[in-house]
Amino acid sequence: MTANNATTPARAKNVVMASHGRAPWYTPDGKNVDAYVVGIAGGSSSGKTSVARAILQGLDHIPSVMILSQDSFYKYHTEEEIRLAFASELDVDHPDSIDMELFAKCIVDLKKGKATELPVYSFVHHQRMPETKYIYGASVIIVEGILAMQPELRDLYDLKIFVNCDSDLMLARRIKRDTVERGRDVNGILDQYLRFVKSSYDNFVQPSSKYADIIVPGYNNETAIELLITHVKRQLKTRALRFRDDLVVSKSELAQSASWDDEHVVLLEQTNQLRGIMTILRDTETNRGDFIFYIDRLATLIVEKALTLLPHKSKDVVTPTGNLYHGVANCDSEIVGVSILRSGGPFSHGLRRVIRDVPLGSLLIQSDPRTGEPLLLNLNLPQQLRSHTTSEKTQVLLLDSQMGTGAAALMAIRVLLDHGVPERHITFLTFLVSRQAVHTVRRAFPHVRIVTAAIDSRLDEVHLPGSSGKLDAADPEFAARLIAQSDVYDDASEAAATPTEWRNNDAGSAAAEREKDLAAGVNDRLAWVVLPGMGHIGDRYYLN
Predict the structure, then answer these.
(1) Is 42 left (phi over 0), alpha (psi -120 to 50) or beta?
(2) Would you say 385 and 394 are in contact if contact means Cβ atoms under 8 Å apart?
């Protein structure tokens, strides 16, 4: 995601760089952990943006690093102020020219893990534009601007940097930038510099350097930047959150905590019809065509049950006989669906069969193969959820095929809460859920409803040999992680002889496949699996 505050894309200063997915930014009880915020101040054209970008590039292995520029937060200008700006007679270097209240609010929102909307300012039109830029999700936030070290902002930073540069070099850079990128003449640039820029630097910018934790030169600063990058990485390492195994509690703890009520955990009535559908879906012999038909049918049943839990409104209609009928209507305009890809796809079809034009969004969450922790790789939310004005009034149906550990569910719910959706407005729809996952979600988010067709009692960590295992290691609900072969097997013969229920072939060919994996150096996997379960629902639905 990027947020452009000028008409020249190459010089857009608000930048988000995401790589390798965003790891959990919250604790097992669902509370956000603050992002790490770096503030960079310095004179105009001192090299603040270059330092920020160099740090960003040095953190290329850190997911979701963003630069937030002060330049987006200039106040709205009157017609007279715009006239003065075009004549280079408007002081935009004074602290009063910046909307400090909004600037601080956006930093706080992003630091707390919330989505926010940035203003968009055009230096070509000398005006804040009517549109805003939606932005969300950063582990590191780099804030840069000449006035970034003002009192309203200083306490928000974990690390404060001041970029110090020779005044002649800053002026030369400013002339080059404003003539090339902003179409201004040299005389106007010099006049503005002498009247406003230098005065602001002497009175506000340079004095703020005493609050910096480190002062970096505006050129030949490679060593300083390397030290900064090393420091930030060290700080982030202390904040790393890994709680995959903590989500799975002991049987005794689970028995003591399993006191959920019907209001928040809704199990479909276990009729013979439903049991028959579940029997077909759990059967490994069920062909793909039948599996798709009954999954679609079950999705519709679960969606219809979920809708009975949402607010309704009265509606009077006139019947074909000319009589008045006092009925009810769903609040369809306030309902959206968000699917956890890709196994949430079948629910999207079921939801569309019940509410034809429902807005749909998606979250791509997969497991980190090294740790088994969930990673947020992408999100595409409906427009209603991108603004807090509308999100707080929206009912969200969160869709996924099953909940195993609850890892993906926690991440998806946290994303919705970060966008301003009230916890009571979130309903999680799933075909199958483990008792462990119910415990996980209820502990962190007690007001989120879960609607499901079955609650299975077992969640076991099983061994999936090599690449021929029948579970997708990227699926977050299996929380699969790669392990060294030596951690599981003493030798290749033991590995080849180990049976696994995730293969449909016979023992001989399974051994042959395992030998092939070993020869290719394929690592093994450990994954949490719901038992008796339904296997990998997404694969069974989408793959031949």
Answers:
(1) left
(2) yes
Cβ atoms of 158 and 235 closer than 8 Å: yes
Q: How far is CA 131 from CA 237, 318, 371, in A?
A: 37, 42, 40
Question: Which of these three, 422, 457, 492, is where a domain ends?
Answer: 457
Among 381, 339, 358, residue whose Cα is nearest residue 541 = 339
Task: State in Å, rounded, how far the first CA of the chain is from the last one.
Answer: 35
Sign of CA dihedral 187, 196, 157, 217: positive
Sign of the CA dihedral 94, 96, 97, 102?
positive
The answer to whether residue 528 is domain-embedded is yes
For residue 318, being part of any structural domain is answered with: no
Looking at residue 293, its pLDDT comes to 94
Residue 466: which domain range?
A: 460-542
Q: What is the pLDDT of residue 87?
A: 82
> Which CATH number do you get for residue 233?
3.40.50.300
495: part of which helix (H) or strand (E)? helix 492-497
Give the C-alpha distances (Å, rounded to integers) separating 230 from 22, 37, 57, 59, 408. 20, 15, 13, 9, 31
Residue 425: left (phi > 0), alpha (psi -120 to 50), or beta? alpha
Q: For residue 401, what is the domain's CATH number?
A: 3.40.50.2020
Is pTM beyond 0.85? Reply is: no
CA distance readout (Å), 395 to 340, 362, 456? 16, 15, 27
Dihedral of alpha carbons 405, 409, 410, 412, sign:
positive
Instruction: Judge whether 365 and 359 are in contact, CB under 8 Å.
Output: no
Per the structure, how many domains does the chain have?
Answer: 3
352, 487: one domain: no
The residue type at 447: H
- Same domain for 415 and 300: yes
* Residues 152, 87 share a domain: yes
Let me know whether 363 and 504 are in one domain: no
320 domain-assigned: no
Query: Is 425 found in the same domain as 535?
Result: no
Structural Rg of the chain based on CA atoms: 28
Instruction: Name 50's Cβ contacts closer than 8 Å, sequence gap at least 6.
Output: none
* Same domain (yes/no): 410, 432: yes
Q: Are 132 and 199 in contact (CB under 8 A)?
A: no
Structure-token match 């350097």, residue found: 209
CA-CA distance, 154 to 363, in Å (whole number)?
Answer: 34
Structure confidence at residue 165 (pLDDT): 87
Q: Identify whether residues 383 and 514 lie together within a single domain.
A: no
**CA-based nearest residue to 535, from 412, 431, 465, 451:** 431
CB 526 within 8 A of CB 463: yes
- Residue 234: inside a domain: yes
∠ at Cα 109 (107, 113), nearest 5°? 115
What residues of the chain score a pLDDT lower than 50? Answer: 1-11, 467-470, 473, 485-515, 517-518
